[in-house]
Amino acid sequence: MTSANSSTLPPKLVDPFARTIDYLRVSVTDRCDFRCTYCMAENMAFLPKKDLLTLEELDRLCTVFVEKGVKKLRLTGGEPLVRKNIMHLVRQLSRHLASGALEELTLTTNGSQLTRFAPELVDCGVKRINISIDTLDADKFHAITRWGNLSKVLEGIDAAQAAGLHVKLNAVALKGFNDKEMPELMRWAHGRGADLTVIETMPLGEIDEDRTDQYMPLSLLRAQLEEQFTLTDIPYKTGGPARYVEVAETGGRLGFITPMTHNFCESCNRVRLTCTGTLYMCLGQEDAADLRAPLRASEGNELLSRAIDEAIGRKPKGHDFVIDRRTNRPSVSRHMSVTGG
Ligand code: SAM
User: Fold this and answer.
1) Are strands 288-290 and 278-280 parallel, antiparallel or unpaired?
2) Does residue 330 surpass a pLDDT of 80?
């Protein structure tokens, strides 16, 4: 359902629950140079290359969303920076920053390619990025990412900050893996001027282990941190689902993303596009809209625009994740790398 598209009012995508959708996350590839154990199986079957949208098609799709009122674009994946010629897409999209149509162009990355790309990202108008890092212990880092190298990621974080990017660090809280390390990770992040956001693990896609063993409710993590730190809730927002506290002892901000213990669907402002042109209106539901067919059906954007309106008109009220031993399968069959984290 599109709301006012008259000449006086700016275009807007509004869903059936009166939520304005102004944030698009785009998974530019489902491939990744890491194999984080909670995210993927080691032997993942990736989407066939022939099914992928070209960078030009991704640009066209994103542009239609911007014309329909999207103000914030986040490139993610898989690992967005391993998509071939990704900077071409970033450069193209940056024209919407220059025109003022887009307020923010940003990325979520594992940091492995940032020594190469950070300066160019800044040159394209990217101001903030999220970098995922679950531990500062090199052996544990290798164990959780299977293929990752901690020092390369640390160099990537250095390069991003040196280039002038505002860095937010993301860590998935995993029971028995990094919960005890959180004070150290937080002090380290805050010590280098970066916010840290912790995320509850979600039941997305088959992995090689039982998620029940890893799941750590953030209410518990917060209680553990409060034994050592003074946490004060603050109204700070970055357009995403994190709720923030200020940490008196470090002077930094800590965000909590709690899709399991407290879902934040009532304020959801986003939809997610995959690299094959499928639009998911909710991370935690199976319903989707194919935008590739209308994109390829004609050179004009009318069909595409109509397909987007229809999809937004079906955006569900929310998700309902369950992790417990009786529900021994993922709530949603696709992996986070497909939908885009
Ligand atoms: N490769 C990039 C990265 O590492 O940030 C972007 C894609 S990754 C899928 C985005 C984020 O999703 C990462 O912070 C990752 O830790 C998180 N993630 C992946 N699978 C998850 C799951 N099942 N539950 C919660 N977070 C997950």
Assistant:
1) antiparallel
2) no
Question: d(Cα 41, Cα 244) in Å, to the nearest integer?
Answer: 31
Assess whether the C-beta atom of 27 lies below 6 angstroms from ligand 1: no
List, for residues 71-130, the tens digit of each pLDDT value. Answer: 999 999 999 999 999 999 999 999 999 999 999 999 999 999 999 999 999 999 999 999
pTM of the predicted model over 0.85 = yes
Residue nearest to atom 20 of ligand 1 (CA): 39
Question: Quick one: CA torsion of 176, 189, 131, 217, rounded to 10 degrees?
Answer: 30
Any ligand 1 atom below 6 A from CB of 259: no
Under 8 Å between Cβ of 163 and 118: yes
Closest residue (by CA) to atom 10 of ligand 1? 341
Residue 148 near ligand 1, beta carbon < 6 Å: no
CB-based contact 24:268 (threshold 8 Å): no
- Residue 94, burial from CB neighbour count under 10 angstroms (0-12, 13-18, 19+): middle
Residue 39 Cα to ligand 1 middle (Å): 6
Q: Strand pairing of 23-29 and 72-77?
A: parallel
Q: What is the CA radius of gyration of the chain?
A: 19
Q: How far is CA 163 from CA 50, 102, 160, 223, in A?
A: 35, 22, 5, 36
The atom number, within ligand 1, closest to the CA of 202 reads 24
> Residue 279: beta bridge partners?
273, 289
Question: Ligand 1 pocket test: which of 172, 212, 216, 283 has the largest number of ligand atoms within 8 Å of its C-beta?
Answer: 172
Which ligand 1 atom sits nearest the alpha carbon of residue 76? 6
